[in-house]
Amino acid sequence: MIKDGFGRVHDYLRISLTDACNFRCTYCMPDEEMQFKASAHLMQVDEIDAMAGMFVRMGVRKIRLTGGEPLVRKEAAEIIRLLSKYPVELTLTTNGYRAHEFIQVFKEAGIRSVNVSLDTLQAEKFFAITRRAHFQQVWDNIQLLVREGFHVKVNVVMMKGMNEEEIIDFVEWTKTQPVHIRFIEFMPFSGNHWENEKVVSYQQILDTIAAHYDFIKLRDDANATAKKFKVYNHEGTFAIISTMSAPFCTTCNRMRLTADGKMKNCLFSKGEVDLLSAFRSGEDIMPMIEQCVIEKEEALGGQFTNDYEKIDADELTNRSMIRIGG
């Protein structure tokens, strides 16, 4: 069991398979011409497997694969199959573009839930956000995942001036399909041009929905990041991930491995621990994992508070989101 200095048990590991992506979302990838890590600098397949196994032996019960876009890594299917042998809930977050190629792999690996990022329901706006004309492919693959019986969560990063007028459209989607919409407050990372004025807060989202629908609060899972709701008589649900205005740090159970093998104990942590170099040198990395978690700050990486209107993004020390892993 891995505990931090505040008694929080950490049993959820997010592993980034690559910092590469086939989209170029403006809020995630600062530069259209980004240079991605060479393969030699990434965790290799056997290294991912071995380190994941160590985390599992230390008490991890859930592993999520992220990127970049995890499904663009050529060994993605192999990695998914390898990790499926562990007694964990295995899942992933994807932009959905290649999901149709992996349906059978997901099923064989016991993956039952898939998160798909989709920030707009409008094809033209999708192109403006992602700089790729792939809306229909993503939409069709979400429909395929639903038909194949997967629990589909749709991640929607909310940004004022970009998609806040689509909140009701997303909730309306839940009327006829069992999709689970998750509105995510816009968060600051290196180079993503974050400004507090762009944040659409938890309360603003809730107020917008309340003006159109009657809904109930659902019971949130333990260690949940999302506050869940359901509109009466709708098949699906909606939720809000309120990182900026109402953080959930007190119940955090998450650890992260970047694609180049650095461990972060918080999405917003300044520091990282180079597990990959130590592992390649034959060192025992378990004490390093424990120490990294023990040193975790109480909230938000110790870099800011939930008074997000006072944050100066230029003063934060962190990677870009794509370099961390979603």
Any overview of this molecule?
α1 (45-57) packs parallel to α2. The protein starts with 11 loop residues before the first strand and ends with a helix. The protein has one domain (12-324): Alpha-Beta Barrel (TIM Barrel), CATH 3.20.20.70. The protein has helices at residues 45-57, 76-83, 103-108, 123-130, 135-147, 167-173, 202-210, 275-280, 286-294, 321-324, and strands spanning 12-16, 62-66, 89-94, 113-117, 151-158, 179-185, 215-217, 226-231, 237-241, 254-257, 262-264, 273-274. The chain is 25% helix and 18% strand.
Strands of the widest sheet, in order across it, are 7-8-9-6-5-4-3-2-1-10-11-12
| Total count of domains | 1
Can you tell me the residue ranges where pLDDT is under 50 for at least 5 consecutive residues? none
What is the oligomeric state here?
single chain
- Structural class estimated from helices and strands: alpha/beta
Give the CA-based shape. Answer: globular
| CATH C-level category | Alpha Beta
Main sheet properties: 12 strands, mixed
Name the CATH homologous superfamily: Aldolase class I
**Alpha carbon gyration radius:** 19 Å
Kindly state the number of beta strands: 12
Helix and strand element order: EHEHEHEHHEHEHEEEEEEHHH
* Proper CATH architecture: Alpha-Beta Barrel
**Portion in beta strands:** 15-25%
Estimate percent helicity: 25-40%
Q: Write down the overall mean pLDDT.
A: 90
CATH topology: TIM Barrel
Q: What distance lies between the first and last C-alpha atoms, to the nearest angstrom?
A: 24 Å
